[in-house]
Fold this sequence. Notes:
The complex is a heterodimer of chains A (about 270) and B (about 260).
Chain A: H1 13-31, H2 44-54, E1 57-61, E2 64-69, H3 76-107, H4 109-124, H5 131-138, H6 142-166, H7 170-178, H8 183-217, H9 226-235, H10 239-267
Antiparallel strand pairs in A: 1-2
Chain B: H1 2-6, E1 13-22, E2 29-39, E3 44-48, H2 55-63, E4 70-75, E5 78-79, E6 87-90, H3 102-106, H4 108-112, H5 117-130, H6 146-159, E7 164-168, H7 176-193, E8 196-200, H8 204-210, E9 213-217, E10 224-229, H9 241-246, H10 248-261
Parallel strand pairs in B: 3-8, 3-9, 6-7, 7-8
Antiparallel strand pairs in B: 1-2, 1-4, 4-5, 9-10
The complex binds adenosine-5'-triphosphate and magnesium ion (MG).
Magnesium ion binds near residues 56, 92 and 168 of chain B.
Amino acid sequence: MRRRPRLLGLSWLPAVVTAVGVLVLWTVVAASDWIQPAYLAPSPLEVWDAFVRANTYHPVGGGVDRVVRGEENYFLWEHLVVSLRRIAIGLVLAILVGVPLGLLMGTVESVRRVAGPYLDFLRSIPPLAYMGFLVAWFGIYDTSKIWLLFLAAFPPIALATINGVRGVREDQVNAVLSLGASRRQAVTSVVLPATTPDILSGIRVAVGFAWTTVVAAELVNGLPGIGGLAYLSGTQNKIALSVACILVIGLTAIALDFVIRLIERTLAPWRGKA
Amino acid sequence: MTATSVRTHSGAVRVAGVEHVFGSRGAEVPALDRIDLTIEPGELVTLAGPSGCGKTTLLRLVAGFMRPTSGNISVGDREVRGPGAERGVVFQQPTLYPWLDVRGNVALGPKLRGVAKAERTARADTYLDLVGLTDFADRRPYELSGGMQQRTQIARVLANDPDIVLMDEPFGALDALTRERLQGELLSLWRATGKTVLFITHGVDEAVLLGTRVLVMSPRPGRIVLDEPAPFAAASADVDPKDLRASPEFAELTRRVREAIT
Ligand SMILES: Nc1ncnc2c1ncn2[C@@H]1O[C@H](COP(=O)(O)OP(=O)(O)OP(=O)(O)O)[C@@H](O)[C@H]1O
Ligand SMILES: [Mg+2]
C-alpha cells in the first residue's frame, strides 16, 4: 500500500537533499589533499567528464593529435548494451529451461524427488566457480559467458516456479478439472497463470544475480562489456572512468529491477489480492 | 439448454457403504460413517446438518476430489475416480481465477471444450444475466463482493452445462433478497433442464423449500438420519413460495428436519 504524499512534491525533498549532500561531500574530499595520489579521488565533475568522453569521439590527449571512438573503440553505452545482451540471452535460455522444469518438478512428485537435489546443488555453487571450466569448454568468447549467465539465472527461476506451483490452491485445480479440463489443460490454464507472480519474482532474483555475475565474468576478456571496461580502466589508472562505469552498473541494476517490477504489475495485477 | 434434454443423462449417483477418515494413524478424524445413498437422475436433493458433520466431505467425494477410505461411489455404471465435467461443483468458498475477468471465468468450461469464442461469450453472458452480474462481466473477481463471487461461480458451473450439479452452501453468503431470487432461479432452471442436484445448506427452510428430497446428517462422523421426499420444489412455477411456506405440510416437514438436526 503506497500512501499518497500529503504535500505534493515534498516527498522527494529528503532524497534530493541527501543526493546533493553526497555530491558536495564527494567534491570536498576530491578537492582536498587527504587522499594521495590525487588521481585516486576524482571529483564528480571529472567523473562526468570521463563519462562524456567515453560516449563521444574525443582526442587521445597527452599531446597526441589523434581522435578515438569512446573507450577501447566502443562508446560506453555500447559496452553497456553488449553486457545487457549477454544477460538477455542467458536469461531467456534460463526462462525457457527453468519454467518448464519448475512446472514439471512442481506437479510431478517423482520428478521433484529425483531432480530436486541436483537443483539445490547447482543453486549453491557461486556461478563464477564455473568460469574456468566453461572457458576450457567453450572458449573465451561470448559462448562461455552466456553459459555462465544461464547457470546463474536458471536455478532461482526453477526454484521459484516450483514454489509457486506448490502454493496453488488445491481447489483452483479441482475447479478446473470439474469443468472438464485435462491434466494438461489444468497446468496451462490454471497452474501456470497462478504461478506467474512467483515466476516473475524468480526472474527478478535471477536478473540481479546474473548482472552481478556478468560484470565479474567480464574481468576475463570482457571487452566490449561494461564490467570489462570498469576493470580495465581501473588497472590503467583511469579512475574517473572506472567510477563512471561503476555508477552506470549500479544505475542499470536499479533500472532493470524497476522494469521487472513494472512487468510484474502488468502481468500479475492480482498479486496479493487473490 | 435444449441440448441437455436431448443428451443422455449420466445416470444415478450411487454412494455405497462410504466411510471417510481424515488424518493418519494416531490422529484420525472420522468424518463420514457408512453412507448409503442413491440420487436418481433429475432429483434435487438437499442436505442439511450441523457444522462440521461431513457434508462438504461427502460432496467432495462425489466430485471425485478424493477417494473414500472405504466404500465406493459411482455415476451411472461408472465408478467415480476423479473430477469430471458431468459433475459441476459450486464450492463453499468461491474459487475464481484472478487472471481472468468475470466473463472469462464463466466461459472457461466451454473454452476448454473448444467452443468458439463468440458462442462461449454469448453463453457466459446469458448466465451472467441470470445471476444478475451483467454489469460486472469485465471486472476481475477480486473486485467483486463475496456474494457476487459466489454468483459468478454458480454462473460458471451452469454455463458448463453439467448433468449433475453439486452445490456447497451456494447461497450462504447472500443477502435474503438475492438468495430468494436465486432460489427461484435454481428451481426454474432445474424444472427446465432436469439436472440432478445435490444442494448442501445450513438453512432448514431452504432445504425444505428447494428439495424434492431432504436429507439430514448427524454430527460427525456423519450418518444420514433423515431422508424424506418433499413436494414443494415440484410445485408449479407460478405458485408463490410464500404460499408454500404458509402451508401446514411445509411447517410439519420443517419441524421434523429441525428435530433431526438437533
Ligand atoms: N482436509 C481435512 N483434513 C482433516 N480433517 C478434515 C479435512 N476436511 C474436513 N475435515 C474434518 O472433517 C469433518 C467434516 O468436515 P466437513 O467440511 O465435511 O463439514 P461440513 O459438514 O461441510 O461443515 P460446514 O457446515 O461447517 O461446512 C470436520 O470435523 C473437519 O474438521
Ligand atoms: Mg462444508
